TrEMBL record:
<protein>
    <submittedName>
        <fullName>TlpA disulfide reductase family protein</fullName>
    </submittedName>
</protein>
<feature type="signal peptide">
    <location>
        <begin position="1"/>
        <end position="34"/>
    </location>
</feature>
<dbReference type="InterPro" id="IPR013740">
    <property type="entry name" value="Redoxin"/>
</dbReference>
<feature type="domain" description="Thioredoxin">
    <location>
        <begin position="59"/>
        <end position="206"/>
    </location>
</feature>
<keyword id="KW-1015">Disulfide bond</keyword>
<dbReference type="InterPro" id="IPR013766">
    <property type="entry name" value="Thioredoxin_domain"/>
</dbReference>
<dbReference type="InterPro" id="IPR050553">
    <property type="entry name" value="Thioredoxin_ResA/DsbE_sf"/>
</dbReference>
<keyword id="KW-0735">Signal-anchor</keyword>
<keyword id="KW-0676">Redox-active center</keyword>
<keyword id="KW-0732">Signal</keyword>
<dbReference type="Pfam" id="PF08534">
    <property type="entry name" value="Redoxin"/>
</dbReference>
<dbReference type="InterPro" id="IPR036249">
    <property type="entry name" value="Thioredoxin-like_sf"/>
</dbReference>
<keyword id="KW-0812">Transmembrane</keyword>
<keyword id="KW-0201">Cytochrome c-type biogenesis</keyword>
Length: 208
């Protein structure tokens, strides 16, 4: 094999890695700080999602899908696997310290998380597109966010953690709520206030 061939082959893996990262970054750039103001939802043609005028999409109990693997390192360096939270209602929120709507909704998330922490509700953030942890950690300190956030700078968990055609995290900010069985029950693609956030959680607490 010639030297040029060996160099060419050796360079393919890094180029593939860079391409994959580029695709992830582009997808998140397109969806960054987006909102679903007209109340419409995506997810494919043969879904049974119901979307109210507030832009919150829901799935009936018997028609909910499970997430993919949502696990990794948190901003404080611990290991977290969302699957371990089964039995609780789980609120997943995609956010970035650079995102203005994320800053607007953060106090509401911090308050509701504190109010419901003893009611069988767990909050997990998914921090994305922060190239290092420090701005994200400062964000949490500024807004009193005490629940953990998975550190997902390239958006891999957001893009690959949900099966195609489900109520998935898409824009930033966006929020998905899982029922007690770990199934995807509700989604919003916009910043939420306390009232709308509670409206996604409380029906699931009443389910048996």
């Amino acid at each position: 094999m010639s030297l040029s061939s060996r160099v060419s082959r050796a360079g393919r893996a890094p180029r593939r890695t860079l391409l994959a990262v580029g695709v992830l970054s582009a997808a998140l750039t397109l969806s960054a700080c987006s909102g679903d103001s007209n109340g419409k939802s995506g997810g494919g043609g043969n879904t049974n999602f119901v979307t109210n005028t507030g832009g919150i999409s829901t799935a009936a109990k018997g028609e909910r899908a499970a997430t993919g693997k949502l696990a990794g390192e948190t901003l404080d360096g611990k290991r977290l696997d969302v699957a371990d939270l089964k039995g609780k209602v789980v609120v997943l929120n995609a956010w970035g310290s650079w995102c203005s709507p994320c800053r607007a909704e953060a106090p509401h998330f911090a308050k509701v998380a504190e109010d419901l922490k003893d009611e069988g509700v767990a909050f997990v953030g998914i921090n994305t597109r922060d190239p290092n942890k420090q701005p994200a950690i400062a964000f949490e300190e500024d807004y009193g966010v005490t629940y953990p956030s998975l550190y997902d700078p390239q958006g891999k968990l957001i893009l690959f953690g949900f099966p195609k055609g489900t109520l998935s995290l898409q824009g930033i900010p966006s929020t998905v709520v899982l029922d007690k069985e770990g199934k995807i029950a509700a989604r919003s693609l916009m910043a939420l206030n306390e009232e709308k956030l509670r409206s996604m959680i409380e029906p699931l607490l009443k389910e048996k």
